[in-house]
TrEMBL record:
Gene3D superfamilies named among the record's database cross-references: 1.10.1410.40
PANTHER family: CELL FATE DETERMINING PROTEIN MAB21-RELATED, MAB-21-LIKE HHH_H2TH-LIKE DOMAIN-CONTAINING PROTEIN
Pfam family, one: Mab-21_C
Protein name in UniProt: Uncharacterized protein
Residues covered by the Mab-21-like HhH/H2TH-like domain: 269-348
Family: Belongs to the mab-21 family.
Region (Disordered): 1-25
Residue span(s) of domain Mab-21-like nucleotidyltransferase: 187-258
Biased composition (Basic and acidic residues): 1-13
Ranges in a coiled coil: none
């Protein structure tokens, strides 16, 4: 097997040269053409941030909208995959044990987290104080914990959102974990109705860890954004119906958006491996799995080693980390290392051995492994100029779609707004050239 590692004069020294540098640089260029370059990613990120701001403003302080997942990371186009949104009520806050609640405004309902007999990163929420107004959704999700105290049921909370009457053109689907998926016209959207969670000790422990990355300023920003709890318990737990899972969606957005270009492309390639090669049927491996692998690689290695000519080295490292996670069924959550992301995955022995064999084959192939990924392979064998033209028009159409999305979020009428009309006209021109 060709050495996919890096050459050093002495162990522990900074690497002199990476293997497969030319292939790494060429693959990075192809990924730019396909819409994974920094400028298009940033445009997507800003568009979805704007949508969340507009939607939050329209809610007038009742809820906050946060876009999460691949759209918030700038990694997928408008209709390429589901759009994930967190919806968080401003009238409720959850506090970790030991946090003083006396300064919380009387308008807010307070829940106290209880982690006893729950798996790491999961909590039951005990009612500490009702606010001046408690929403019907929260009130109807309360149950008795057996000792006369109010306990917020995650199952009841999600069920009420599922049972809400939907508007015209919207189809409600079955619950998927903590989310309430819908199709709005042609757009598939996953809404997670979460709650604010103030947990300073957990974030302080994370911030204190030794790391190469991210910078102290980014660490402080992640800590300042706080956490949430989403309505989903540990599968198979006796308390699954009343457990809530801690999540750091806004902090994770910041972390991913502070990865450099090569680290982001590593993330994209590992997501492609998951989707197009492993093809998990029961979420045995998810995008969240590979996201955490990339974050661990970033934190444990000098930032200067990640550049376009080292992409294949880090892909090899990422595949090896994925192989270990599958083999051992262990992968610590980047922000809460005590939580094993592989603990509840339904991975049987036959599937495990098959995936490990596939990853081993890929690691021995060197740069040729990239040809296993359909999107990359098609781009490599295509003629460069038609590919650039097609990708340019596709990206232009997507940017127009994102502008239109935010015009509608601002309340503009699609039949009378001159900007939307101009966008529609230009999109017809673009699609006509494809036809």
């Amino acid at each position: 097997m060709a050495d996919q590692g890096i050459s050093r004069d002495e162990p522990g020294e900074v690497p002199k040269q990476f293997q497969n540098e030319q292939a790494s640089a060429e693959t990075s260029t192809v990924m730019n053409v396909l819409g994974y370059g920094p400028h298009i990613r940033q445009a997507r990120i800003e568009a979805y941030k704007a949508w969340a701001r507009h939607s939050t403003a329209k809610a007038r302080g009742i809820v906050t909208y946060i876009t999460t997942g691949s759209k918030a990371e700038g990694l997928t186009s408008y209709l390429e995959s589901d759009t994930d949104h967190l919806i968080v009520p401003e009238s409720v806050i959850c506090l970790e044990d030991g946090v003083d609640s006396s300064s919380v405004p009387v308008e807010k309902t307070i829940f106290r987290s209880c982690s006893r007999i729950s798996y790491s990163g999961h909590y039951r929420l005990l009612l500490e104080r009702c606010g001046t107004h408690i929403s019907d959704v929260v009130y109807n999700a309360l149950c008795d914990d057996g000792f006369g105290r109010g306990l917020l049921s995650s199952d009841l909370y999600v069920t009420q959102w599922l049972n809400l009457k939907q508007g015209e053109g919207t189809v409600q689907h079955e619950r998927a974990g903590p989310s309430t998926p819908r199709t709005i016209r042609v757009l598939d959207v996953d809404y997670v109705h979460a709650l604010h969670f103030y947990c300073p000790s957990i974030l302080t422990r994370w911030a204190a860890r030794h790391r190469y990355w991210p910078s102290p300023d980014v660490v402080r920003e992640v800590v300042s954004l706080g956490a949430f709890v989403s309505p989903v318990g540990v599968k198979g737990s006796d308390y699954e119906h009343v457990e809530w899972r801690m999540c750091f969606n806004t902090g994770e957005n910041v972390l991913i958006n502070n990865l450099n270009d090569t680290q982001v492309k590593l993330y994209v390639l590992l997501k492609m491996v998951k989707k197009d090669i492993l093809k998990p049927q029961k979420k045995e491996v998810t995008s969240f799995t590979v996201k955490n692998i990339v974050l661990w690689i970033a934190i444990n290695n000098p930032h200067s080693l990640f550049h376009e000519r080292s992409l294949f080295h880090w892909l090899h490292e990422g595949l090896y980390a994925l192989r270990v996670a599958i083999d051992t069924k262990e992968l610590p959550y980047f922000l809460i290392p005590g939580r094993n992301l592989m603990a509840a995955c339904a991975l049987d022995h036959v599937q495990k051995r098959s995936w490990i064999a596939t990853i081993d084959e890929m690691m021995t192939e060197g740069p040729r492994m990239i040809l296993r990924l359909p999107k990359i392979r098609q781009a490599i064998i295509a003629h460069p100029e038609p590919l650039r033209w097609f990708s340019g028009r596709k990206i232009e159409n997507e940017m127009l779609e994102l502008i239109c999305m935010n015009r509608l979020a601002l309340g503009m009428d699609e039949d009378t707004d001159v900007i939307i009309q101009a966008i529609n006209s230009r999109q017809k021109e673009i699609l006509g050239r494809f036809g």
